[in-house]
């Protein structure tokens, strides 16, 4: 399962980050690393991006990026 | 004693600039969104001339993505500050410490200031500073930059630390004894090995930082080091062993283990208030409404419209007072006024005006007298006169405002009286009253409106809405190839185009940054607001919708301009990724909002003195002298230098409806500063008929076109949407990175402004039944071209992973 498939309010643990390069690094720098708990807070009015709670703060990423984050 | 350099480093939006301002007494801009500061700023610590504090743009990590992150990293690694003051947001400590672990590895003495301790305490959370200090081998203090608590002590501590630190024998830099080790056994082993092999090749004290970067295969760092292919190959083996053992890539291993280290440190040192944990905070509740599925976009539209309403409805009254009262003839202090002979001041004035009109009309041999409405220029009242009325009117005396209450003379009246006392010639009096003061006071008259908009903007910036706008708008922006982050510069642009162009630096991808720069100045800035106010009062009966309409036209240009640009080769491609922190909302403090407003307003007023004033004097001179430098009277202005120069350019503006030398002078001089257009119009209309400056401007437009309102609309739109003022153009050139790109930006803006003004005027005339001419056809062709540029099928981009700046 990937992060973009979580429903609003659901919490899961990050299992793996796919993809490579600067975007992946940026997402990891922002605290979305293996083993982190992440909650989907909300989806933007037009369906994208999504808002997450991770490490106690609010982070927003696009669904494209969320699709590269495997959770379980 | 040598100067001590202290770098303020920390995450975006952690309060570095607030602390910087408190420590140095500066007035740098702060706001509640990540990326307010995009340039390094220096200041001297209050009361300590030998200590320089450097405010760096906020960064999340020392692996840079965007331009301003590069500024910070370069400074920290290469410029060797004597000590680092690391600001950490105490309400978001876990992610903030991620950067701290990296800063600690630089081997520079460091003090960590945990900011927002007032909020942490209010939330009932507890942070054990001792444990963090021990783990990261630095000093830790709690501060509240906003409440001005503990900041100075933290700075003093940093200075002491820098003083007492040992000097590195080789480089003379100050260093710390030990840097923290946060990684697991096998990683530490590999790093130790790398450290050994690069000794002598990198600055000694930061050797660990370099070793970790090599382990991560950071291209920028490796490129700058002279490692050698053989050695790199050898090191690569160690890295690969490590990757195999931990079944992950090196970059992920480092990131994961840093966060693991922080997580276990947090478990020991942070006690969260359990009661609060699951409670919805006020921030959450506000957020629910503001980013609601259905309400988000209407709320945004409402916010902009509210600003427009504020600027016109209450703003209009204040502008009247500023123009006619404070800067004009004078004003009564409220509640001190009383009636004289049953009339109040307004009635008495109106009666006297009527009497004057009666006298003038009778003496001219007419049987009817009339009074024109000052604003619309239409006949407001007309009445029959006879000899009796004339005799009565002749006896009427001008009412003395001082009898009607406490009267404060206006600056304009005082200048007039002063000039009369000095007994100066009519020429000098005209230069001062009509030229210099006429122009400057016009610009200053808009201060109240501009203050209102700046107040509104300061509130938006401080409360945390900006990042949400980016979140809400991302999807729309992506439609035309930008990320939601591009929306932030556009809102900043409502204040001023210069910071807007600079704010585009937070966009990670050069192509998107350039596009944002080109587009963001289409949002009317504070100075353009002066033009909108003037025209909506003079030509559109102060309708409240004129303001929002101009903003939405600006937004429409951005959207369609974006779509068109994106289809060109230079800008095609996937938009930059959107990874953005959404800061917590907080109620802006009154003093904070006021400070923001004041900084901007001060800038506007100073500009009136330093730029508008000399420009007005210059304009008055070139308008009142001919080429052989003979003084001209107000009736001979068509022999002036300005008339000739303006006429050379006027033909270009003919299709727009204001192709006279006056129109050209106003449009060109507006490039000095946008509000100059209002001042210039007042000056170049000196030769026109009319009792007030406003009436003269109306007559000026009437002299240029059969449809003065249409020409006025065209003039306003032209000035709003052609390239911004000189300063903003200069910044655009700098930020675009090359002259060629600068010209592309300016060329595009010029085309857009001209095309829209021409379409409005030509198609407007067509609609009014003026027939089809050459320029009508030209306008239609230009419009068809624009439609084609927007709607032509673009190439589908198939790029899967997009490259960021810094990636080759």
Describe the structure concisely:
The complex is a heterodimer of chains A (72) and B (808). With 72 residues, chain A is of the alpha+beta class.
Commentary on this structure:
The complex is a heterodimer of chains A (72) and B (808). Chain A is built from two helices and five strands, in the order βαβββαβ. Chain A has 72 residues and is an alpha+beta fold. Chain A has a single domain (3-71), classed as SH3 type barrels, CATH 2.30.30. Chain A has a five-stranded antiparallel β-sheet. Chain A is globular and about 30 Å long. Chain A starts with 10 loop residues before the first strand and ends with a strand. The mean pLDDT of chain A is 90. Chain B is of the alpha/beta class and 808 residues long. Chain B folds into four domains: 4-175, P-loop containing nucleotide triphosphate hydrolases (Rossmann fold), CATH 3.40.50.300; 185-271, Orthogonal Bundle (Helix Hairpins); 282-329 and 410-590 and 708-808, no CATH class; 335-408, no CATH class. Chain B has 34 helices and 15 strands. A six-stranded mixed β-sheet of chain B has the order 2-3-1-4-5-7, with helices on both faces. Chain B is elongated and about 110 Å long. In chain B, 48% of the residues are buried. Residues 797-808 of chain B have low confidence and may be disordered. Classes of the chains: A alpha+beta (72), B alpha/beta (808). Chain A binds chain B through residues 17, 19-31, 33-36, 42-49, 51, 55-62, 64-65, and chain B through 60-61, 63, 65, 92-95, 98, 248-249, 251-252, 255-256, 259-260, 287, 291-294, 296-297, 467, 471-472, 474-476, 478, 484, 508, 577-584, 801-804, 806-807. Strand 4 of chain A pairs antiparallel with strand 15 of chain B, so a sheet runs across the interface.
Task: Give the topology.
The complex is a heterodimer of chains A (72) and B (808).
Chain A: E1 11-17, H1 21-29, E2 37-43, E3 50-54, E4 57-61, H2 63-66, E5 69-71
Antiparallel strand pairs in A: 1-2, 1-5, 2-3, 3-4
Chain B: E1 4-10, H1 16-24, E2 41-44, E3 51-55, H2 67-78, E4 83-89, H3 93-104, E5 110-115, H4 117-123, E6 126-127, H5 129-136, E7 139-142, H6 151-164, E8 166-167, E9 174-175, H7 185-198, H8 207-216, H9 219-224, H10 229-246, H11 250-269, E10 270-271, H12 274-277, H13 282-290, H14 296-326, E11 330-332, H15 345-363, E12 368-372, E13 379-384, H16 387-395, E14 407-409, H17 411-422, H18 426-445, H19 447-463, H20 465-479, H21 487-492, H22 497-503, H23 510-520, H24 526-539, H25 546-566, E15 579-581, H26 590-624, H27 641-653, H28 661-669, H29 676-684, H30 693-704, H31 708-721, H32 726-736, H33 739-767, H34 774-791
Parallel strand pairs in B: 1-3, 1-4, 4-5, 5-7
Antiparallel strand pairs in B: 2-3, 6-10, 8-9, 11-14, 12-13
């Amino acid at each position: 399962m990937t992060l973009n498939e979580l429903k609003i309010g659901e919490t899961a643990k990050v299992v793996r980050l796919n993809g490579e390069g600067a975007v992946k690094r940026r997402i990891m720098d922002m605290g979305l690393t293996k083993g982190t708990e992440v909650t989907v807070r909300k989806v933007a009015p037009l369906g994208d991006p999504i808002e997450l709670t991770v490490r106690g703060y609010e982070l927003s990423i696009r669904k494209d990026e969320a699709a590269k984050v495997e959770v379980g | 004693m040598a100067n001590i350099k202290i770098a303020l480093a920390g995450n975006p939006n952690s309060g570095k600039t607030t602390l910087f301002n408190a420590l140095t007494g500066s007035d740098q801009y702060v706001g509640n969104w990540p990326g307010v500061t995009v340039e390094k700023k220096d200041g001297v610590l209050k009361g300590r001339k030998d200590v320089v504090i450097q405010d760096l743009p906020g960064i999340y990590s020392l692996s840079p993505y965007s331009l301003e992150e590069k500024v910070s990293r370069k400074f920290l690694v290469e410029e060797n500050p004597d000590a680092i003051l690391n600001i950490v947001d105490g309400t978001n400590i876990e992610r903030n410490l991620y950067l701290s672990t990296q800063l600690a590895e630089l081997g520079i003495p460091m003090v960590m200031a945990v900011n927002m301790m007032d909020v942490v305490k209010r939330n009932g959370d507890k942070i054990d500073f001792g444990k963090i200090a021990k783990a990261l081998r630095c000093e830790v203090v709690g501060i509240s930059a906003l409440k001005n608590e503990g900041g100075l002590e933290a700075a003093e501590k940093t200075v002491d630390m820098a003083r007492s630190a040992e000097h590195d024998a080789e480089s003379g830099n100050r260093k710390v004894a030990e840097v923290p080790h946060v990684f697991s056994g096998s990683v530490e082993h590999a790093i130790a090995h790398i450290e050994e092999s690069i000794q002598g090749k990198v600055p000694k004290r930061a050797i660990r930082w370099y070793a970790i970067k090599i382990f991560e295969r950071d291209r920028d760092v490796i490129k700058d080091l002279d490692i050698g292919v053989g050695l790199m190959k050898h090191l690569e083996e160690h890295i690969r062993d490590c990757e195999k053992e931990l079944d992950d890539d090196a970059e992920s291993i480092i990131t994961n283990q840093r966060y693991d280290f922080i997580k276990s440190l947090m478990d020991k040192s942070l006690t969260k208030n359990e009661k609060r944990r699951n409670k919805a905070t006020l921030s959450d509740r506000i957020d629910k409404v503001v980013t609601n599925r259905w309400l988000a976009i209407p709320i945004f539209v409402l916010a902009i419209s509210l600003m427009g309403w504020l600027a016109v409805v209450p703003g209009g009254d204040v502008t009247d007072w500023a123009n006619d009262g404070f800067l004009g003839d004078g004003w009564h202090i409220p509640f001190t006024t009383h009636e004289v002979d049953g009339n109040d001041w307004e009635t008495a004035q109106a009666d006297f005006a009527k009497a004057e009109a009666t006298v003038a009309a009778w003496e001219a041999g007419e049987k009817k007298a009339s009074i024109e409405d000052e604003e619309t220029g239409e006949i407001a009242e007309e009445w029959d006169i006879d000899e009796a009325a004339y005799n009565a009117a002749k006896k009427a005396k001008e009412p003395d405002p001082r009898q009607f209450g406490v009267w404060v003379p206006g600056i304009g009246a005082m200048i007039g009286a002063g000039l009369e006392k000095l007994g100066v010639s009519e020429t000098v009096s005209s230069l001062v009253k009509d030229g210099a003061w006429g122009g400057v006071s016009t610009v200053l008259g808009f201060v109240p409106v501009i203050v209102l908009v700046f107040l509104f903007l300061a509130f938006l910036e401080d409360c945390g809405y900006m990042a949400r706008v980016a979140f809400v708008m991302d999807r729309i922006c992506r439609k035309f190839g930008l990320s939601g982050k591009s929306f932030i510069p556009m809102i900043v642009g409502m204040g001023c185009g210069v910071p807007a162009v600079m704010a585009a630096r937070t966009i990670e991808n050069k192509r998107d940054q350039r596009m944002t720069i080109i587009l963001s100045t289409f949002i009317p800035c504070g100075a353009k607001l002066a033009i909108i106010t003037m025209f909506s009062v003079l030509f559109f009966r102060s309708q409240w919708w004129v303001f929002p309409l101009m903003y939405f036209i600006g937004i429409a240009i951005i959207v369609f301009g974006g779509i068109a640009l994106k289809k060109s080769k230079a800008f095609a491609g996937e938009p930059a990724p959107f990874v953005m922190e959404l800061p917590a909302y907080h109620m802006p403090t009154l003093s904070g909002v006021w400070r923001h407003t004041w900084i901007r307003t001060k800038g506007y007023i100073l500009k009136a003195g330093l730029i508008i004033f000399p420009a007005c004097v210059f304009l008055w001179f070139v308008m009142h002298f001919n080429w052989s430098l003979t003084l001209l009277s107000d009736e001979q202005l068509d022999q002036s230098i300005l008339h000739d120069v303006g006429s050379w350019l006027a033909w270009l503006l003919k299709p727009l409806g204001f192709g006279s030398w006056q129109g050209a002078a106003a449009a060109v001089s507006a490039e000095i500063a946008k509000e100059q257009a209002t001042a210039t119009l007042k000056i170049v209309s000196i030769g026109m008929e009319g009792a007030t400056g406003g009436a003269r401007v109306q007559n000026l437009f009437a002299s240029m076109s059969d449809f003065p309102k249409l020409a006025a609309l065209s003039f306003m739109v032209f000035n709003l949407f052609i390239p911004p003022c000189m300063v903003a153009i200069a910044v655009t050139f700098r930020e675009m990175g090359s002259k060629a790109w600068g010209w592309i930006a300016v060329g595009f803006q010029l085309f857009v402004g001209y095309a829209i003004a021409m379409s409005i005027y030509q198609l407007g005339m067509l609609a009014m039944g003026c027939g089809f001419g050459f320029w009508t056809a030209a306008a239609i062709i230009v419009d068809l071209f624009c439609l084609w540029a927007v709607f032509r099928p673009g190439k589908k981009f198939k790029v899967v992973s997009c490259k960021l700046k810094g990636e080759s």
